[in-house]
Amino acid sequence: MAGDGPDGFTPLVGEKVHSMIVAPLTARGGVLGLLTLYRSRVDAFEEADLDVARQAAATAAAHLDNARSYRRDHAVASALQRRLQPGATPRLSAVETAHVYLPEGAGGAWFDVIPLSGTRVALVVGDVAGHGIEAAATMGQLRVALRTLALQDLETDEVLTHLDEVAGQLAAVDSRSGDAHPYLATCAVTVYDPVSRQCTMMRAGHPAPILVDPDGAPLAVDVPLGPSLGAEGGAAFQPAVVQLPPGSLIAHCTNGLLGSEGDHEGDGEATAVHRLEHVLATPSRPLQELCDTAVYRMAPSRYDDAVLLLARTDCLLPHQVADWTLPADVSVVGTARRLVGQQLTAWHLDERAFTTEIIVSELVTNAILHGEGPVRLRLIHDRERLLAEVTDANSAGPHLRHARAGDEGGRGLYIVMRLSAHWGVRHGRRDKTIWSEQRLGEDTDDVLDVTDTFDTIGV
Predict the structure, then answer these.
(1) At 283, is the pLDDT very low, low, confident or very high (cuts 50, 70, 90)?
(2) Which residues contact 230 (CB under 8 A, 6 or more apart)?
(3) Which residues contact 211 (CB under 8 A, 6 or more apart)?
(4) What is the pTM of this model?
(5) Largest Cα–Cα distance in the chain?
(6) What does each C-alpha distance from 265 to 105, 206, 214, 236, 273 come to in angstroms?
(7) Which residue, 104, 109, 367, 424, is CA-closest to 252?
């Protein structure tokens, strides 16, 4: 191209250029570049050639502007998607995890590792339909909604049912804006309990999790395929429940890793699953190394996001868990305190005995007065945590309330809250569990200050 001075035209003269048209490429009031046409023939450009040049410049400018807009939106969507993903995954007793995340399509794929009460963990992988900023924003909404629901200690099917309701509301908004999809997202959730080694798996239009035993053999588990999130109202999701030996692998992935477009299972997806099972056939290898090998072997789609979340299961040893079943009689509250004191002595946690006995007293008393059937008391010593759980057969949840000055009761859960780092209620099909967690390396509220403030129920 010619320069600003006369010498800049030397290459054109050398090529015997006779005439030239220069047309600006303009879009949105700015100049994107120049379209330069040369002719070495003797006859010069005519007016008709100028019209063609103007049309070519206008078309080229429109395409360049669209490409710039797409690249800018893609960069923003990718940045938003990365920002909405979880940070460093927590270090847990239940599982060791590793993941790989490739936002190739700037879409709505996501994953999460959610610590739950009772040392359990929820492993989540999902994928929102579509690409771009809207898909990334929807992904963020669904991920936060699922994490919030999971932390409510609901049953896994209830979590997906409520998440489907949230997705249905988001899909309704999209349909009013003209961006309707046949479904909003797909999702798979696995909840693993290291005490019972029970693994509960559910999925909504998503590839099933892959299980590999400690020897590298795939475990065939039929996880019922539920409807995609937002596809229909009142969806029902069925769980698959298995017991896993320590050292097993749980693998969650998106269609992008399997190289499968769409959410329907077929021969192509089955072949890709077999390839992934072959990669995972050496579960003792470092998990991040397995993730990297899977990406290399699977050849993920270049047009869709790819996520692989691996978890190697562990279990709590019997000496870390103490479990008792007590009759529903107020006379057993003192017995519960003595059992707790003896167990904490065995764990060399005598300094926590007074606080834990108060917590257990309040929880057992609450279960006897307001629950049904026998009371189950469980203590778990997990690294730097001490968990106390009391289960009864009444599924109705308790309510934290502020007792009046003259009330004789109503302060038990408030005391539990003050003495615990965390506490909550876990609902089962036919029972409920109130749990308390103490951090062994942290100071709690002064026990005497709390107990002196209120008249507690004791035996």
Answers:
(1) confident
(2) 164, 167, 168, 170, 171, 181, 183, 184, 185
(3) 199, 218, 219, 221, 242, 244, 248, 249, 250, 251
(4) 0.78
(5) 113
(6) 21, 9, 27, 19, 11
(7) 109
DSSP code at position 118: G
Q: CB of 397 within 8 A of CB of 425?
A: yes
Dihedral sign of CA atoms 327, 331, 333, 335 in order: negative
CB atoms within 10 A of CB 296: 10
Question: If you count them, how many residues does the chain have?
Answer: 459
| pLDDT tens, position by position, 295-336 | 888 876 676 788 899 999 999 999 999 999 999 888 899 999
Write out the H or E segment, with its range, that includes residue 295: helix 287-298
Q: What is the dihedral of CA 256, 261, 264, 270, to 10 degrees?
A: -60
Provide the phi-psi class of 72: left if phi over 0, else alpha when psi is between -120 and 50, else beta: alpha
> How many CA atoms, within 13 angstroms, populate the side-chain half-sphere of residue 205?
21
Long-range contacts of 177-182 (CB under 8 A, 24+ apart): 179/130, 179/134, 181/129, 181/130, 181/230, 182/129, 182/228, 182/231
The stretch 71-89 carries a mean pLDDT of: 64
DSSP string, 304-366: S-EEEEEEEE----GGGEEEEEE-S-TTHHHHHHHHHHHHHHHTT-GGGHHHHHHHHHHHHHH
Rounded CA gap, 366 and 200, in Å?
Answer: 30
- Lowest mean pLDDT segment, chosen from 96-105, 133-142, 177-186, 228-237: 177-186
Angle at 152 between CA 148 and CA 153, to 5 degrees: 130
Interval 344-354: pLDDT, tens: 999 999 999 99
Instruction: Decide: 121 and 190 in contact? Cβ < 8 Å.
Output: no
What are the percentages of helix, strand and coil residues in the chain, rounded to 5?
35, 25, 35
Close Cβ partners of 216 (under 8 Å, ≥ 6 residues apart): 280, 281, 282, 283
